[in-house]
Fold this sequence. Notes:
Layout: H1 3-21, H2 31-88, H3 91-97, H4 99-116, H5 118-122, H6 124-137, H7 140-163, H8 169-178, H9 180-198, H10 200-206, H11 208-235, H12 246-264, H13 276-302, H14 309-331, H15 337-349, H16 364-367, H17 373-408, E1 413-414, E2 421-422, H18 425-457, H19 465-490, H20 498-528, H21 531-535, H22 540-543, H23 547-563, H24 568-591, H25 600-624, H26 626-631, H27 635-646, H28 650-663, H29 669-679, H30 684-699
Antiparallel strand pairs: 1-2
Amino acid sequence: MDVEHLELEAKATATKHVINMLQRPEQLEKVEQYKRRVVRKKASVEAMLKTAMQSQLDGVRVGLNQLQSALHDMQEIKQNLKWIEESFSSVPALNSKLQDVREENMRHSQYVTAMENLKHIFTVPESVEKTKQWINEGKLLHTHQCLTDLENSRDDLLYELYKLPNQAPADKIMLKAYFEDVEGLSQLLEKQLRLVVSRTLNTLRKEPTEIVTALRIIEREEKADAFALQRQRQSGFLPPARPKRWREKALEVLEKSVAQRIEGTQVDERADDKMWLVRYLELTRQLILEDLRVVKTLCVPCFPPQYDIVNKFVNMYHTCLSAHLQELIQNGLEGNEYVSVLSWIMNTYAGPDLMQHPELNIDTSVIGPLLSNEVVEELQSLYLKNMERNYMDWMQKTLEKEKEDWRKGTAPEGDDQDGYFHTELTFKALLLSMGQVTQYGKMYREAIVQFKIRHFEDRSQVPYFTHYIITIVNNCLHFVELAQQMKQLYWIPGLHDNEAADKLEALLSTFQQLRDEAAQFLLEEAFLDLELHFQDLVTSKWLASSIPVDTICVTLEDYFHDYVHLRVRNFDYVISEAQNLVGKKYVSAMLRKRISFKTYEERKEAALKILKESAQIKAFFTRIAPKVAKFDSPFEIINALAEVLKCEDAEMLSLDLHNLIDKYPDVTQEHLTQLIALRGDLSKSEVRDMVSYVVQSEQTKNRPPAPKSIFSQL
């Protein structure tokens, strides 16, 4: 450090400080005061410096002491290491001197083991016979205890023999031969446990203690297996017949029994009963439903948690049933058997009749499909080929009959009404075609429903879901139009029987309903994205924001851009349904009462906002589909409810309610109660009395039947 430079800097700083303090004449009187202050500050700084120096010196002193101590410890360690090194040189000689001691210790250990097992060694034949008797009597816990004692004696003796440096093979063979019957007892017990486990579902209903006993024995053996494997890792010794893996074998037995139960439900063959497959599938459904009920109610308390027994059984039934169905399919199906299998797989198995039954409620997405997509597609393909083959055979036979009629030399039949000649061929072919197309429509619906379910489980899997559903909606309408054209061209009123009329109506209704259902799937996709925004309607947050309704309109318009690929009738239908759905959700939001009004001004502000948003949504739908929006708008209901909400005079409120009921007779007393309660200006008793009076007075009126409004859908 440059002391002179620091000294000059200090003097310059002091000079500057003095100049600042003595800028005015009157400050000279305070010179002594300034001097005392500087002296005190100097003394304080010097004291701090002394303290700092003392602290540094103390630290240095402690460090030197620690270094001295470390040096002493290092010298001591060095001496000890030297002594250890010298001691190691005497270890080989000590090893040879202690050889006799080691051998004596080995003999002592063997004698101790022999003494501990003398009772079992001398009584092996008696113990074996007693254990067999207990097995025959079904006393499995006693059996296992005796077997465990015998196995422990054998394994301890074999382990002592294993530790000998020079093992005598003859001793090992003799010991194993002496305990040979023990392994036979283990096999007998295992056989008995297999029998008990195979009857688990039946036994649990009568004697659950038998299952608990078997599981206790299996878990004890699992612990014995774990101990034997651990000792093998440490010493290399593994007792005979270990590991037994009885838990794994028990689960295999359970799976085998499940497979047998499923196969056992097939009581008929095709030659015995044409409905054999339908009967088998129904018996299988009843069996699985009842068995899984037993599993959920009785197995869970009896089985250890690590078995995860419910999921284990579900997977067993799923796997075994899948294997058996594939075997049936490989053996060949006929006619409507394809439809029976497909319908059962897609609807019954995964639906509320089985896996989704309220008492089971099993998530089938975890266990996967019963049959792979490839197998299902192959089934559908085989059914269509079979249907085509049967259809061609029937037409060929019918054509042969027609040719035969031509050769008979008789005049054709005449039409009763118009006198035109005809034969039965055309109409029979028509009926068969209608039946087959109707059947195809049912298969088509099952495939569409499964497609929709898989999509909504993970919406990223099918990026063009909307486009596919639009195609399906158009296809269904095309089927309907073709059926209507066929009716116009080939249907003669009054000529055909009821069965023919029923087949035509079944064809029309199948594809009409499927069109409507697919359209709902289309809207479900759109409205799923809007659910949170509908939840925000008519809430405290909604009062100060237009975001919910703006977002609803923008999102729907985005989806409607894709809907332009719908045919005109379908587009109008979808827009009409979307309009009704928006109206229904808005009215539901109003009647849920998730906002409270303290003053009339707040209520009026909310009512005006509702009227404004109703007009906004109506204008949106009018722009998208003018004919649909103007024909039957549900937003008039929203306006009527807003007027009731806006009414200031309680006396006029009754008149508004009368007008509302006159216009919409399907509005219920509960709807009116919720609407009046939303106002917040009447007590519960006043609301109840007013609504009750209005409803009773309206019931006395004789009014003609009116069309249903969205109130019927709430």
